[in-house]
Design goal:
mainly beta, 5% helix, 141 residues, 4-stranded antiparallel beta sheet
Amino acid sequence: LSFWMNDFDVSYSASSPAYVGAEKGFPAGDLNAFPDKYAEWLVTDVELVDDIIPNDYTLEQNYPNPFNPSTTIRYQLPSNSVVKISVYNMLGELVRTMVNEYQSAGRYEVTFNASNLASGIYFYNIQAGDFVNTKKMLLLK
């Protein structure tokens, strides 16, 4: 995701808005600031919606958007693929890898729970075979 960041100043300091609410020297939204809760927040549901094989790779817009505290991301695979779905914050830092596994062709959905993240814009990205796509979502608390 670093390609989209080249034209923006994404620096922050203890007084910048990106840092407000952060603990232990981590930027707001960084789950590493909460090691005792980190594993609990990684729980997501990945579900095969149906076994009808789609024609194309697709990453749909999350729903609802804006969301609080959870949202659903749907995607389609026309062939068996290694799938990786990740969420990034505005700084381009990895917040969570929600899926990282081999999946059969079909339609899937994954639930992203952001109950312990800061409000703001996040990006989710899919990599499956040669298909790569990124979309934006908004967490409002």
